[in-house]
Design brief:
This protein is of the alpha+beta class. Helix content is about 45%, strand content about 20%. It has helices at about 5-10, 60-70, 75-80, 85-90, 100-125; strands at about 25-30, 35-45, 45-55. The protein is globular. The mean pLDDT is about 95.
Length: about 120
């Protein structure tokens, strides 16, 4: 049912947690609905130096958050902005159609966290 990549990221999720002094934060979905992804980013000089996620949902939700953090850590914000749900799904070896929404959640969380970080920068300048 799940690809080897989904199983690996579900059983051994990478970068799970929350960055307390995050530069960017976003939550997509809600814990009440049982489907939620929260992403926190630490950014320095335009580079994502750390990313952590928390997820509620099925194995695909956890795997999507895990693989996303691996895709963006040590990459520029401009590169991170170009990541789509298709990139996330492909990195997980493809997702079943009924689970694709978790890759969509991950993409939305990423884009919203980047916007959040830019808003924070503007208010501190």
């Amino acid at each position: 049912m799940y690809s080897q990549q989904v199983t690996e990221h579900f059983e051994n999720p990478h970068n799970i947690g929350t960055i307390v002094d995050a530069d960017g934060t976003a939550t997509v979905g809600s814990a009440a609905s049982g489907e939620m992804l929260r992403l926190t980013l630490k950014i320095s000089e335009g580079i994502v130096i750390d990313a952590k996620f928390r997820a509620f949902g099925c194995p695909t939700a956890i795997a999507s958050g895990s693989v996303l953090t691996e895709m963006i850590i040590n990459n520029s914000i401009s590169d991170a902005q170009n990541i789509t749900e298709s990139h996330i799904s492909n990195a997980l070896g493809g997702l079943p159609e009924d689970k694709q929404r978790y890759a969509t959640y991950a993409e939305k969380a990423l884009k919203n966290a980047i916007v959040s970080s830019q808003s924070l920068q503007e208010t501190t300048q």
